[in-house]
Amino acid sequence: MSTSDNNEDGDACPVNGHNSRKVRFKGKEGNNVEMLVGPMSSPSVSWKDLLLRNFAKLKEKAGGKNKEHFNLEERDFSMTIVNGILAIDFSDRVKNYLLKDIETTVVVKLQGRSIGYITLQNRVSSLWQPS
């Protein structure tokens, strides 16, 4: 093998540009390092999390923590065809179940962003409060 240059260690480098070096790995003995972790800081709560947490508390008060399973039965809906269009009518039981979950959820698009009802109410009231 012909050599053209020497590398920084003084070893000969091959002409084809490939450089081979001998590499030795140190044994794993003697590397016993204990890592101590400081106390975990509580993560900061975002406005969205704060809003959703308050919503979850409202849901717990209204419906309890345990969510019952809702089974849709034959008597809970009726299907009819009106002017060639399928119409589905739900019973009051189904309507009440659906409204119970969404009665406090109102999401409005304001300046291209989704905003909750409480936040919207706070912004509007802050605009109308005399300074």
From TrEMBL:
Region Disordered, residue ranges: 1-22
Biased composition (Acidic residues): 1-11
Protein's UniProt name: Uncharacterized protein
Organism per entry: Gossypium klotzschianum
